[in-house]
Design a protein that fits this description.
Length: about 220
C-alpha cells in the first residue's frame, strides 16, 4: 500500500515537471521547489551520515570522552577542534569583517585541489595518453588484421591532425600545415557531433523512461 502511494506521488511529480513542455506555470514551479528541497535535504543527510559523522563527529566525541583519564587523546581532540574551526570559517563570507577568514580557507582548498589535479594528470591521464598511440599495423594470429589496422590508422591520423590544429607555436602558413589543420577541425566536428548525439540520446532515454513510468502507473501496463 505504501509503495503504491509512493508510486502515485512520483507519477504526479513527474507530470508536474513535464508540464514545463507546455509552458512555465505554477504547477511546474511547485515541482521544481519540491525537487530542490529534496535535493538539499538528501545532500545534507548524506553529508552528515556518510562523511561528517563517521569521519569527524564520532572520532572527536570518542576522543573527548578520554578527558580526565590517564591516556587522554590530545591529538584527536585538537584535530577535531581544528577541523570544526576550519568549517566555521566558511561562514565568514556572510560578514564583511570576517570575509578574509573565508578567503584563507578557500585558498587552502583551491591549493589542495590544484595539487591533487596535477597529481591525477600524471597518475591517471598519462597512461590514457600513452595508450592512445596505437600501431597502424596490427598482427593477429600471424597475419595482418586489415580492419583493425585501418581503424588504428584512422585513429592516429585524427589524433595527430587535431594535435597540430591546437599547436599554435608552429606556423600554419604552409599548404601542408593548413591542410592538416583543416582536417583536424573536421575530426573535431565529428567528435563534437558524436558527443552531442550521445547527449540527446541520453536525455531522450531519460524522458522515455519517465513517460513510460507514468503510463505504467496510471494504466497498470507492464
Amino acid at each position: 500500500m505504501v509503495s503504491e502511494i509512493g508510486g502515485w506521488i512520483a507519477a504526479f511529480c513527474v507530470l508536474m515537471i513535464l508540464s514545463l513542455l507546455w509552458k512555465e506555470n505554477r504547477v511546474y514551479r511547485i515541482g521544481e521547489s519540491l525537487l530542490l528541497g529534496l535535493t538539499v535535504g538528501f545532500t545534507f543527510a548524506i553529508s552528515w551520515f556518510e562523511f561528517l559523522k563517521p569521519k569527524w563527529w564520532d572520532p572527536w566525541t570518542q576522543n573527548l570522552a578520554t578527558i580526565g583519564s590517564a591516556d587522554i587523546a590530545w591529538t584527536g581532540i585538537v584535530g577535531g577542534a581544528f577541523a570544526l574551526a576550519l568549517g566555521l570559517c566558511w561562514y565568514g563570507m556572510y560578514f564583511k569583517k570576517t570575509e578574509w577568514v573565508m578567503r584563507l580557507v578557500l585558498g587552502v582548498v583551491i591549493g589542495a585541489g590544484a595539487g591533487q589535479a596535477i597529481k591525477n594528470q600524471f597518475t591517471q591521464q598519462m597512461p590514457v595518453v600513452t595508450a592512445s598511440f596505437r600501431s597502424p599495423i596490427v598482427i593477429q594470429e600471424g597475419s595482418v588484421s586489415a580492419p583493425q589496422s585501418i581503424n588504428n590508422t584512422i585513429f592516429l591520423v585524427a589524433l595527430i591532425s587535431v594535435m597540430i590544429f591546437f599547436l599554435f607555436s608552429i606556423d600554419h602558413k604552409s599548404a601542408a600545415m593548413r591542410a592538416i589543420s583543416r582536417s583536424g577541425r573536421f575530426w573535431l566536428m565529428i567528435g563534437f557531433g558524436a558527443y552531442f548525439g550521445n547527449t540527446v540520446m541520453t536525455r531522450l532515454s531519460a524522458l522515455i523512461e519517465r513517460v513510460w513510468f507514468v503510463v505504467q502507473q496510471f494504466t497498470g501496463m507492464n
